[in-house]
């Protein structure tokens, strides 16, 4: 509540100004989320640390205004973050997990916080946001997988004037990583030494469109250029059709990537396909998926983010050179039962024919068995309280030393609750 008061105090001179009445204040929203996050990645083969382990408490305040009246409406969004280490000094006996900042002495911070802002403008249904951005696009994805979401500094124009069509133009020159309070240059991710170096870039620009053909078919097309590092194009298709015995679901994704400009990370050449097909019947969904990398390199992604393939594995990304991935998944939603609000998921993924750039002539394998159980209280005084527990059993036959992804048993537990003040 203290953080809410601080940020509301910052906003109050603007919010209460008569000139900004009507939609600016009437459409404003203020929320405070308390997030408790436990992370334990228990390594299984001769690592320097026995585990990557953190336990943290976070507070996320979002104060978003509406828009001022007029042909061009203006507004502002404020984001306040505060995180606290709950394990004390003992946390430094383990590798960092990305929940807390790490100092030059390699010790975790006891607490950290920041305030970010975004100015915005609106003409009819189209919007412009300048400042802190959290894009969730296939070629520019702000990772939400830790205590706080990764964010970028830049400008995002979204055109919404045609029904069912969204067109995006975005430029960003800095990233604020999940465990940091500072902006830094955007880099290409380089796990397992996939490229010559984790090259930095002066910025990234992106163009893209999302079109909903009807209630059954949705498409995406995007292109991004990480200046002088790599450029990437994306095509996506999602479908949902009633076939009598249930709904048949599909999600197809194609990435085409190559080095760009001065090629600061070296040669990059990759085509990555992923597809998952599912049958949803009542509360059950059963899915089968396949992914494959083609080309001379692995699929490039931005440092600190996950690749936007359908498989969101906790311990590895399954996008190595020439890797083929077989995937089976089962979901059960307890809606319309006595346990309404409870959801369960399990999946198994197997990656084969993996090539590592620095280990030529050898092939490797990896596999992951994941479980995910979440419960959101649907009614009562604690309505909206969200509990989530995840577990992954991950193994590979890569060398024990020097690899970004190592055999482990991983556990994550989240407790989230959001207060809405308007």
TrEMBL record:
Keywords: Signal, Transport. InterPro entries: OM_porin_bac (IPR005318), Porin_dom_sf (IPR023614). It comes from the Bacteria. GO terms for cellular component: membrane. GO terms for molecular function: porin activity. It holds the Pfam family OprD. Residues 1-21 form the signal peptide. Belongs to the outer membrane porin (Opr) (TC 1.B.25) family. PANTHER family: CHITOPORIN. This is Outer membrane porin, OprD family. It comes from Acinetobacter towneri. The lineage of its organism: Bacteria, Pseudomonadati, Pseudomonadota, Gammaproteobacteria, Moraxellales.
């Amino acid at each position: 509540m203290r953080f809410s008061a601080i940020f509301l105090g910052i906003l109050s001179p603007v919010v209460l100004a008569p000139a900004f009445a009507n939609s600016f204040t009437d459409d404003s929203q203020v929320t405070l989320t308390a997030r408790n996050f436990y992370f334990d990645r228990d390594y299984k083969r001769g690592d320097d640390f026995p585990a990557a382990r953190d336990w943290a408490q976070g507070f996320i305040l979002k104060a978003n205004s509406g828009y001022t009246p007029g042909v061009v409406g203006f507004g502002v969004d404020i984001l306040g973050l505060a995180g606290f280490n709950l394990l004390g000094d003992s946390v430094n006996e383990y590798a960092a997990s990305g929940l807390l900042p790490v100092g030059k002495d390699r010790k975790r911070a006891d607490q950290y916080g920041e305030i970010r802002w975004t100015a915005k403008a609106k003409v009819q249904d189209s919007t412009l946001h300048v400042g802190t951005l959290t894009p969730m696009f296939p070629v520019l994805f702000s990772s939400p997988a830790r205590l706080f979401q990764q964010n970028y500094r830049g400008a995002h124009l979204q055109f919404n004037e045609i029904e069912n069509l969204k067109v995006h133009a975005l430029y960003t020159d800095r990233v604020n990583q999940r465990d940091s309070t500072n902006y830094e240059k955007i880099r290409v991710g380089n796990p397992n030494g996939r490229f010559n170096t984790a090259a930095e870039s002066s910025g990234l620009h992106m163009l893209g469109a999302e079109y909903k053909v009807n209630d059954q078919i949705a498409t995406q097309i995007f292109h991004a250029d990480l200046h002088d590092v790599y450029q990437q194009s994306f095509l996506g298709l999602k479908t949902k059709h009633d076939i009598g015995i249930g709904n048949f679901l599909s999600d197809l994704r194609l990435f085409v990537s190559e080095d760009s400009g001065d090629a600061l990370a070296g040669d990059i050449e990759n085509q990555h396909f992923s597809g998952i097909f599912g049958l949803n019947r009542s509360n059950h969904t059963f899915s089968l998926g396949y992914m494959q990398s083609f080309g001379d390199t692995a699929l490039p992604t931005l440092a600190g983010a996950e690749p936007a393939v359908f498989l969101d594995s906790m311990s590895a990304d399954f996008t190595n050179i020439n890797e083929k991935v077989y995937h089976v998944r089962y979901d059960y939603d307890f809606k319309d039962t006595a346990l309404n609000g409870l959801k369960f998921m399990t999946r198994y993924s197997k990656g084969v024919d993996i090539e590592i750039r620095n280990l030529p002539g050898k092939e490797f394998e990896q596999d992951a068995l994941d479980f995910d159980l979440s419960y959101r209280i649907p009614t009562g005084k604690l309505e909206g309280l969200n509990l989530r527990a995840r577990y992954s059993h991950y193994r590979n036959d890569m060398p024990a030393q020097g690899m970004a992804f190592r055999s482990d048993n991983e556990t994550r537990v989240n407790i989230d609750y959001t207060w809405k003040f308007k």
